[in-house]
């Protein structure tokens, strides 16, 4: 099956087109339609060709985690059942089945809520000014996001406890910037920061425990949160989990078998693709490709990436697509 890298629903208003998701307004004024395409990005660059079934994998894994973690914090999911969506959405059933969610509108909190259970990272090409991997920062200064860590850690070491390391939430085409928690408090307010950080840490711990039972290490992940009106009249806005959750696009998953601190680990996420892109010459000034026509993934790398995504879905969820 050919990958779906773009959508065009004539009777729905396109709100935004991100690296992976297309977001549409619907006839329900309180809801949005999230559609996960098969697009894939690396180093914030959207590649020319997609990964078959990737959007379905991301959606189905997010649905699994939304259900499993719903007792920790509410989320934005209304339904993934096309039959329960507005009539103007049902018209596109064939394209939407398995890769779409109807979600609550929310005020997005402008913070990437990253939780790290292990110290790791990847080489970042020079075009990533202001960013560094956790491991490269630790080697230089003994810190991650400016937070001091114990001496003597090696690459892929498990941290003494999960660490909340926020970053800015950049606009499309820009790069997120790693920041210290004190800066995050300034950006969103101390009370909201505490609520977000504690929710993120609880979510990570629960997810990491489940992954461990399935033979998987959740090295780190990124959550996004939003605010919705309280169900109680006059109450403060309620924090909810939004966007995707704990997918291979937003997380580092490692096989527990063969895990060995002191080196990089094999993974079920985009690291395989990132390594290929760097090996092909990706660097500052070449975001548009060697010939200016973007970057097209080799067929064997497409297949390898697809297999990794499919495998982690099966291992984590215990389900087949």
Overall description:
By secondary structure, this protein is α+β, with helices and mostly antiparallel strands. The protein contains 8 helices and 16 strands. The chain has helices at residues 54-68, 87-90, 93-96, 134-141, 181-188, 190-213, 271-279, 299-317, and strands at residues 14-17, 21-25, 31-36, 41-42, 45-46, 77-79, 100-104, 107-108, 111-118, 143-144, 147-148, 158-164, 167-168, 216-228, 238-242, 251-255. The strands form 4 sheets. Strands 8, 9, 12, 13, 14, 15 and 16 form a 7-stranded antiparallel sheet that branches. A 5-stranded antiparallel sheet has the order 1-2-3-7-6. The chain starts with 13 loop residues before the first strand and ends with a helix.
């Amino acid at each position: 099956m050919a990958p779906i890298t773009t959508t065009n629903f004539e009777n729905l208003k396109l709100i935004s087109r991100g690296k992976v998701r297309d977001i549409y307004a619907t006839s329900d004024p309180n809801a949005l339609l999230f559609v996960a395409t098969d697009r894939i990005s690396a180093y914030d660059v959207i590649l020319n060709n997609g990964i078959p079934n990737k959007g379905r994998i991301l959606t189905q894994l997010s649905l699994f985690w939304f259900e499993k973690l719903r007792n920790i914090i509410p989320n934005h999911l209304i339904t993934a059942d096309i039959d329960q969506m507005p009539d103007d959405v049902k018209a596109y059933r064939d394209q939407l089945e398995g890769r779409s969610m109807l979600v609550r509108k929310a005020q997005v909190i402008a913070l990437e809520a990253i939780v790290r259970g292990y110290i790791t990272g990847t080489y970042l090409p020079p075009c990533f000014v202001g960013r560094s991997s956790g491991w490269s920062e630790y080697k230089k200064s003994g810190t991650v996001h400016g937070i001091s860590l114990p001496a003597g850690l090696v690459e892929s070491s498990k941290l003494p406890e999960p660490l909340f390391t926020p970053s800015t939430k950049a606009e499309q085409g820009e790069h997120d910037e790693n920041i210290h928690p004190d800066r995050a408090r300034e950006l969103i307010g101390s009370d909201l920061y505490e609520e977000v950080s504690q929710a993120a840490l609880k979510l990570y711990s629960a997810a990491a425990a489940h992954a461990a039972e399935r033979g998987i290490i959740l090295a780190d992940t990124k959550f996004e949160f939003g605010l919705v009106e309280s169900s109680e009249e006059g109450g403060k806005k309620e924090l909810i989990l939004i966007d995707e959750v704990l997918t291979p696009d937003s997380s580092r998953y490692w096989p527990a078998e063969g895990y060995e601190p002191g080196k990089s680990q094999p993974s079920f996420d985009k690291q395989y693709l990132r390594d290929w892109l760097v090996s092909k010459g990706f660097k500052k000034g070449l975001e548009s490709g060697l010939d200016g026509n973007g970057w097209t993934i080799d067929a064997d790398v497409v297949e390898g990436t697809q297999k990794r995504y499919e495998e982690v879905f099966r291992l984590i969820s215990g389900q087949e697509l």
